[in-house]
Automatic annotation (TrEMBL):
The lineage of its organism: Eukaryota, Sar, Alveolata, Ciliophora, Intramacronucleata. Residues 1-386 form the Amine oxidase domain. It comes from Stylonychia lemnae (Ciliate). This is Amine oxidase. It holds the Pfam family Amino_oxidase. One of its GO terms (molecular function) is oxidoreductase activity. Gene3D superfamilies: 3.90.660.10, FAD/NAD(P)-binding domain (3.50.50.60).
Length: 388
């Protein structure tokens, strides 16, 4: 119920010369270890999608064009943004009347809101007033098709952990780096002594002070930890007896009249032939849902599905993530928040006295919020330790 996709299995990353002709290292792991992956759609942003809306039935608006117009206007507005400009501020300047190939088009406010919420929520798992307008679109993806793992993403950590001594089920509460060695202390009082330690807990855990440090982390690192944003996204998997939706589509979108709670649904049937859908929510909606019971969350999702498909049947099985209440996560993935800069992830990544090092998606400005970002940060820090 966390990551599904390898974001791009082609070589290279547009805008990052250092990755020219190089594969996403996670994809490389799948190639080297014969881990099966499956294309969800042939090219990025080229999935088959259908839009339903609050007026009933399929929407006739060309949302793809609205989205492109929005992205073009963002590129212009981004040049003028400073670190305190939120994405919301930039978005508010996006005109409802737009020039399209067929003349001037007046957009429905709800479509504008949807396009915007989709952009913020799916990319950043956050709300627009929180996201830095200056740094949007700086989280890079690899080129080429997006792949999923028919047998689960878990194969990646299992493969990488082969031949390593991994000790599970230890809750770390304190790290003491005041002496020659670093002591890592767990909640049951166990002490692990090491020459060097890499801290890879999520940003939200660092913020929560679940782990204390002796001496305290340098103030500038603490400031950067505070300045960066922790996003929330949750998935609801609903399995049915039979498919009652458009089985050919990859994505089923719903544009509501101002309330975008269940705007994005993935047609799982397309890839697994199981009659199942995965519904997404994010940002403040995800925070609200995280406080609700499974029944209430599913009821809300089913209400939306029944507007889209009045013939929708009851579900037979469900899984629900609640990352906010996972005590070892407390977030989905990180983003550059209003007021933060690209220096902040770098600052969090900075080692202290060559004794404690930091890695994880939140330390990788270029690939923040992704599984490949986390993996690349780990490779980088391992090379640094070898050099040190
Ligand atoms: C819903 C969702 C969908 C996503 N979809 C994608 C996707 O399709 N593609 C993609 O590339 N990325 C996706 N991501 C993002 C991706 O999963 C993360 O960026 C990545 O897993 C981050 O890796 P990490 O190693 O930095 O942190 P984590 O994977 O969070 O690892 C941190 C580890 O620290 C442990 N920990 C925390 N506190 C303690 C403690 N006190 N003591 C001991 N251990 C502790 C945790 O248990 C965890 O094992 C998604 C994330 C979510 C939530």
């Amino acid at each position: 119920m966390g990551a599904s996709w390898i974001h791009g299995i082609g070589k290279g990353v547009q805008g990052l010369q250092e990755w020219k002709n190089k594969y996403n290292p996670l994809y490389q792991v799948t190639l080297e270890n014969n881990i099966k992956t499956l294309a969800t759609w042939k090219e990025r942003d080229n999935g088959e999608y259908l839009f339903y809306w609050y007026k009933g039935g399929e929407m006739t608006y060309d949302v793809g064009t609205v989205f492109k117009l929005f992205q073009n206007s963002l590129e212009i507005l981004q040049d003028k943004a400073n670190i305190n400009t939120s994405l919301k501020e930039m978005y508010s300047k996006f005109n409802l009347t737009q020039k399209t190939s067929s003349g001037d088009a007046k957009l429905d406010q709800n479509i504008k809101d949807y396009t915007f919420a989709h952009f913020c929520g799916f990319e950043y798992a956050a709300d627009a007033d929180q996201i830095s307008g200056k740094y949007i679109s700086n989280d890079y993806l690899f080129l080429g098709p997006e792949h999923i793992f028919p047998d689960g993403y878990i194969q990646i950590p299992i493969t990488l952990a082969k031949d390593l001594n991994v000790i599970l089920n230890q809750k770390i509460t304190h790290i003491d780096y005041s002496g020659e060695y670093v002591n890592v202390i767990t909640d049951n009082g166990q002490i692990f002594e090491a020459n060097r330690v890499i801290v890879t807990v999520p940003l939200a855990i660092l913020k929560s002070k679940m782990i204390t440090f002796t001496p305290q982390l340098p103030q500038s690192k603490q400031d950067s930890i505070e300045k960066m944003g922790t996003g929330l996204m949750d998935k609801l998997y609903l399995e049915f007896q039979d498919v009652f939706w458009d089985e050919e589509a990859d994505w089923l979108y719903y544009i509501s009249d101002g309330n975008v709670k269940w705007g994005i649904t993935l047609n799982h049937y397309q890839y697994t032939k199981k009659p199942a859908l995965i519904l997404f929510n994010f940002g403040k909606d995800a925070r609200e849902f995280s406080e609700l019971s499974d029944e209430d969350v599913i009821r809300s999702a089913m209400e939306t599905l029944r507007i889209m498909y009045p013939q929708a049947t009851d579900y037979v099985k469900y899984y629900r993530s609640n990352w906010n209440h996972d005590q070892f996560a407390r977030q989905a993935y990180s983003f550059v928040k209003v007021g933060a800069t690209k220096e902040d992830p770098l600052n969090i990544a900075q080692d202290i006295d060559k004794k404690i090092y930091f890695a994880g998606e939140h330390t990788n400005f270029n690939f923040i919020g992704s599984a490949h970002g986390a993996y690349i940060s780990g490779i980088d820090v391992a090379s640094k330790i070898i050099d040190d």
